[in-house]
Amino acid sequence: MIYTSGSTGQPKGAMNEHRALTNRMLWMQRSFDLGPAEVLLQKTPITFDISAWEIFCPLLSGAKLVLALPDGHRDPRYLCQVIREAQITLVHFVPSMLEAFLADDVGESCASLRRVVCSGEALSGALARRPATPTAAARMPRCAP
Fold first, then answer.
1. Are 38 and 64 spatial neighbours (Cβ–Cβ below 8 Å)?
2. In the predicted model, is pLDDT for residue 145 greater than 50?
3. What 8-state DSSP symbol labels residue 73?
4. Within the chain, how many helices (H) and strands (E) appear?
5. Contact (CB, 8 A) for 84 and 52
6. Which residues contact 47 (CB under 8 A, 6 or more apart)?
């Protein structure tokens, strides 16, 4: 059982089969060519569905997993500090938090960040085109389904 707000915005429990989770992990690993060179930040509270890939993808692919402090996902400056110090290469944001992360240009100093995955909310075209860092813009598409 996982908890998700899905498209309704109302938290609810949802059953998830092991094979569905496995399928998602393998898709992420293939789609993003995850391997030992990657460093992923796990920042989503464990009660949310997106935390599953943040935890298991690095473990399946040999990538490094860095755990953010509880409630650290709410603080863009803290996240930037962790991204810089741990040399994070891939991170997930819901679009509203990506907006906050980019608002004060804190992302500009996160040179190790190559990929940003966005999901969980509607992603505007303007935000999708805005680079999180010069490095991320140059190397990879920033947002994925």
1. yes
2. no
3. G
4. 6, 6
5. no
6. 2, 3
CATH for 2-139 is: 3.40.50.980
Contacts of 22 (CB under 8 A, 6+ apart): none
Per the prediction, the chain carries an average pLDDT of 81
Per domain, the residue ranges of the chain are 2-139
Q: What single-letter DSSP state applies at residue 107?
A: G
Give the span between the Cα atoms of 77 and 9, in whole angstroms: 26
pTM of this structure = 0.80
Q: For 40-44, 78-82, 112-116, 139-143, which range has the lowest pLDDT when averaged over its residues?
A: 139-143
Q: Which helix (H) or strand (E) holds 129?
A: helix 125-129
